[in-house]
């Protein structure tokens, strides 16, 4: 089964970076994505897609982006739910971002002054977008607790990637 979401758009506000009780960084943000068609008035409408990113990638994302930044997000769609104070079940659907790309050069005029001051004076805009990845991304579906770094026993797993054992004879070309 495939659960993949790839979106390109602009941030509606600065990412909200928080830390869990376990010390894991989590960034929440919304990406505005223009629709490909126009409405009856000839104007393009936009979808506002809620996203969440974890750990070091979340810290990097919060440090290098701001309201209006053009970003590419690669992740998966996640639905979770909880019971609110009134006893109603609330469902939340969001993109769990695993990778992101900065799609504008550092010298973009869209950058606020406080972010520009952090850049070294000799910084050159890169011709290739910058891409960041969460560490230990796995193809299996994880629960909300596992995404936060805990396994089903309530302990932390050592996230590492394993190399596949593939020979040239296994390749179809």
TrEMBL record:
<comment type="function">
    <text>Plays an important role in DNA replication, recombination and repair. Binds to ssDNA and to an array of partner proteins to recruit them to their sites of action during DNA metabolism.</text>
</comment>
<dbReference type="Pfam" id="PF00436">
    <property type="entry name" value="SSB"/>
</dbReference>
<dbReference type="GO" id="GO:0009295">
    <property type="term" value="C:nucleoid"/>
</dbReference>
<feature type="short sequence motif" description="Important for interaction with partner proteins">
    <location>
        <begin position="168"/>
        <end position="173"/>
    </location>
</feature>
<dbReference type="InterPro" id="IPR012340">
    <property type="entry name" value="NA-bd_OB-fold"/>
</dbReference>
<comment type="subunit">
    <text>Homotetramer.</text>
</comment>
<dbReference type="InterPro" id="IPR000424">
    <property type="entry name" value="Primosome_PriB/ssb"/>
</dbReference>
<keyword id="KW-0233">DNA recombination</keyword>
<keyword id="KW-0227">DNA damage</keyword>
<dbReference type="InterPro" id="IPR011344">
    <property type="entry name" value="ssDNA-bd"/>
</dbReference>
<feature type="compositionally biased region" description="Polar residues">
    <location>
        <begin position="150"/>
        <end position="165"/>
    </location>
</feature>
<protein>
    <recommendedName>
        <fullName>Single-stranded DNA-binding protein</fullName>
    </recommendedName>
</protein>
<dbReference type="GO" id="GO:0003697">
    <property type="term" value="F:single-stranded DNA binding"/>
</dbReference>
<feature type="region of interest" description="Disordered">
    <location>
        <begin position="104"/>
        <end position="173"/>
    </location>
</feature>
<keyword id="KW-0238">DNA-binding</keyword>
<keyword id="KW-0235">DNA replication</keyword>
<dbReference type="GO" id="GO:0006260">
    <property type="term" value="P:DNA replication"/>
</dbReference>
<dbReference type="GO" id="GO:0006281">
    <property type="term" value="P:DNA repair"/>
</dbReference>
<keyword id="KW-0234">DNA repair</keyword>
<dbReference type="GO" id="GO:0006310">
    <property type="term" value="P:DNA recombination"/>
</dbReference>
<feature type="compositionally biased region" description="Polar residues">
    <location>
        <begin position="106"/>
        <end position="138"/>
    </location>
</feature>
């Amino acid at each position: 089964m495939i659960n993949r979401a790839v979106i390109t758009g602009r941030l509606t506000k600065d990412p909200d970076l928080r830390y869990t009780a376990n010390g894991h960084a989590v960034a929440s943000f919304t990406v505005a994505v223009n629709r490909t068609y126009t409405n009856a008035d000839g104007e393009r409408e936009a979808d506002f897609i809620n996203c969440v990113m974890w750990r070091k990638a979340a810290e990097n994302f919060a440090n290098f982006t701001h309201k209006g930044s053009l970003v590419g997000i690669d992740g998966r769609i996640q639905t979770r739910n909880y019971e609110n104070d009134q006893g109603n079940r609330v469902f939340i659907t969001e993109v769990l971002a695993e990778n992101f790309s900065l799609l504008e050069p550092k010298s973009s005029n869209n950058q606020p002054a406080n972010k520009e001051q952090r850049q070294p004076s000799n910084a050159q805009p890169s011709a290739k977008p910058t891409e960041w990845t969460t560490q230990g991304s796995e193809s299996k579906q994880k629960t909300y607790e596992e995404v936060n770094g805990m396994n089903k026993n309530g302990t932390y797993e050592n996230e590492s990637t394993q190399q596949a054992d593939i020979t040239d004879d296994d390749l179809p070309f």
